[in-house]
Design a protein that fits this description.
Layout (H helix, E strand, L loop, with lengths): L9 E11 L17 E10 L5 H12 L17 H9 L5 E8 L9 H6 L5 H29 L4 E7 L6 H17 L19 E4 L5 H17 L10 H5 L16 E4 L10 H9 L5
Helix pairs in contact: 1-2, 1-6, 2-6, 4-5
């Protein structure tokens, strides 16, 4: 099933996009002018047998909001009344949704001396992005592992497709994941509350594509942008948690809970994020307590 030589067959596809940016030197609202307060990842997980269906789903969404002439779904560009229509429809399809939301105030000016010494050409922003990808994949691969074991009695690999972004070296992300895999084998992983389920992931099944060529990534954009709008209270974002709430029917659960799984807040413990009352609302909706 894989187009990559020597890669194992895959039975799931995880499509990942993000909203916000990984900038750490200056961060709003601590700085009047700076990077976004949040970096938010959205992931849509489908079974590989449904690989072609997101094209049909996106076309239906565009038609239902009167944009049938559009070739691509850009959630941020939709009029306010169209966004809940799209989210309601997305929540009816056979898929699972994950969102990793990192509030960056506590990361302002952060540097990793060990990482910088090992790879001085790699920016702190790149390491931060990779770290957030790791946290997201810990949850996604756990779901894939448990679902495939339940369905087939054995682990099933997941193909991971990232939305292409300017200025980001995805080759370094793949190398970072391979390093984590080696550390897991030698039991030297620094953070081990959770771990990526390496039984279901292979570096040869990691790819990068432009959203305009992949309808599944456009669905991941709906997730990332909905949750970003639910937490970013600074202009020019029009804060509104409504759309992220509408996705609940497809948010992944662990032991019956969305908290810290289908919807995951960083930093941990959550009080370190110093969220406003409005920012807490979407997390409280998904089971967090502050």
């Amino acid at each position: 099933m894989s187009k990559f030589h020597g890669a194992p067959p895959f039975y799931y596809i995880a499509l990942i996009d993000e909203a916000g940016d990984p900038g750490l030197a200056r961060v709003r609202p601590l700085d009047d002018i700076g990077a976004s307060e949040w970096l938010v990842f959205g992931c849509v997980l489908i079974q590989a047998i449904r690989e072609s269906e997101p094209v049909i789903w996106v076309r239906s969404m565009l038609e239902n909001v009167g944009l049938q002439r559009n070739q691509e779904l850009h959630f941020r560009e939709l009029a306010a009344w169209r966004k809940p229509v799209v989210c309601r429809e997305l929540s009816k399809h056979p898929l699972r949704i994950f969102s990793l939301l990192s509030n960056k105030k506590n990361m302002r000016g952060h540097r990793n001396p060990k990482a910088a010494a090992r790879s001085p050409a790699i920016s702190a922003n790149q390491y931060f992005y990779n770290f957030c990808v790791r946290l997201l994949l810990e949850r996604v691969t756990d779901y894939v592992f448990r679902h495939s074991m339940s369905l087939h009695g054995r682990p099933g690999h997941v193909k991971v497709i990232f939305s292409r972004r300017d200025g980001h070296a995805f080759g370094h992300t793949s190398a970072y994941l391979e390093l984590l895999k080696q550390q897991s084998r030698s039991d030297t992983t620094w953070l081990n509350k959770r771990a990526i389920r390496w039984q279901v992931i292979d570096w040869r099944l990691i790819d990068v594509e432009a959203p305009k060529h992949n309808a599944g990534l456009q669905l991941a954009d709906v997730v990332a942008s909905s949750f970003y709008q639910a937490v970013d209270t600074l202009p020019p974002t029009a804060w509104d948690p409504t759309n992220a709430r509408l996705l609940r029917p497809r948010i992944a659960k662990e032991n019956g809970e969305y908290r810290d799984y289908g919807v995951a807040l960083q930093p941990a413990p959550v009080w370190k994020a110093r969220l406003t009352a409005d920012q807490k609302k979407i997390f409280e909706f998904y089971g967090y307590q502050f």
